[in-house]
Amino acid sequence: MTDQASTPDGRPIPGWAALLPVLALVAFLSLFILVLPERYPGFEGTGHLPLLLAAVAGGLVARAHGWSWESLQAGVNKAISMAMGAMLILLVIGLLMGTWLVSGVVPALIDWGLSLLSPSFFLPTACAVCSVVSLVSGSSWSTAGTVGIAMIGIGGALGINPAMTAGAVISGSYFGDKLSPMSDTTNLAPAMAGVELFEHIRHQMLTTGPSWLIAMAVYTVLSLGTDVSVDAAGIDAIQSAIRTHYDPSIIHVLPPAVVLVFVLRRQPALPTLLLGAGLGAALALAQGTGADSVINSAMSGHVADTGNDGVNDLLSRGGMLDMAGTVILILCAMSFGGVMERTGMLQTLASKLLSLAKSAGSLIAVTVLTAAGINIVAGDQYISIVVPGRMYGSAFAEQGLHPKNLSRAIEDGGTITSALIPWNTCGAFMAATLMVPTSAYLPYAVLNYVNPLLSILFGFLGITIAKRARADSTTPPVAG
Prior knowledge:
With 480 residues, the protein is mostly helical. It has a domain at 83-323. The chain is 73% helix and 0% strand. It contains 23 helices and no strands. It has helices spanning 15-39, 48-64, 69-102, 105-116, 122-137, 140-158, 162-179, 184-193, 197-225, 232-246, 254-264, 269-286, 291-300, 309-315, 324-342, 345-354, 360-378, 381-391, 393-398, 403-415, 425-434, 438-441, 446-461. It is globular and about 65 Å long.
């Protein structure tokens, strides 16, 4: 017997009604983030309540069309279960940051980075390093959670705006995530569109490559044009405080080296990061740090006491509990996205957008914007790839376009924009891991907004758009 909660039980929801929860989300976000902070100084608006209230609005619309509470709850549960891996990784990143700080791993990386990196070329270097690591590992999250954390610390000590550093880290991390054959999204997109993996990667390179070059050029100009007055005495004071209190040595390379090896061997992220956190804790204990300090750092974050206020601010962070707000944000986002997807409202809105596509260029634009829009509405990168990938295949076939155009467009709009949405799992992760609000780093995550814009431009100009061969018998995916 089929469980009632596992099958849809309500009436189809028309487009105008499906739009109501989205309008509610926009209204609540505007109220909590723009209006209330202006009216009540000191009030810090977040997306938590707006997402939860928008989920309630979606539930009311669904109930008005005959959907049962059991069915809505099943949709929310499914969405949350999809994000459970992300939430666990966030908590483990908090553990890792705490143990790597108390053990001296991050301070050592900052010390060595200050000796090697110049402010004049720091941003393009940070982007390039993260690009290589993510390309080999296939994971933007692992890259940001390891190399990215170190880059934030080094940039802060050099006097670089943390938002700029975070933007460069994210651009580099998503370059590799988008092109690596080991990336889950790079495999998911061609599977949805019915394209061979390496054909998809080669076609993606035609929009992602130029976007990366533009980003590198922007970071070079920003680095050369930013008025960063490096105080040699101040840098020496930072390095002196780190060396006095953390005594950087070759042993501090061990935890990140082990994590990097496991990442490059494409081991699962969660156990790999747990291993890194465990190695950091073991190293701290081996150096004589008390067990209570190690546990406190892992749970609540490391509190540095070096005698240098700047170093203390730089190194006091991390801990599993520090990620609690981000985890709750993801829960709220998945509640909203689960209601929207379960009831078909998400698919209804996507089909309405598809009706606007009258040419190959407009079809690609709609696909890119749909994927980006689902990142906003559903708060999940994978849904932004799956929904348009399954729904738009026949439209691309009717336009005579090769399905690799579809797989590229959903990655150009879905994968790449996910880090720009504060309540998306990816945006929440990057903001929490790099300790920079999404709104602050967004202008500097150049690759992540240039790529979708370039994809749309190429679509209208007909640049790199592949036609379907007459003999091509590939069956486009259908909405399921």
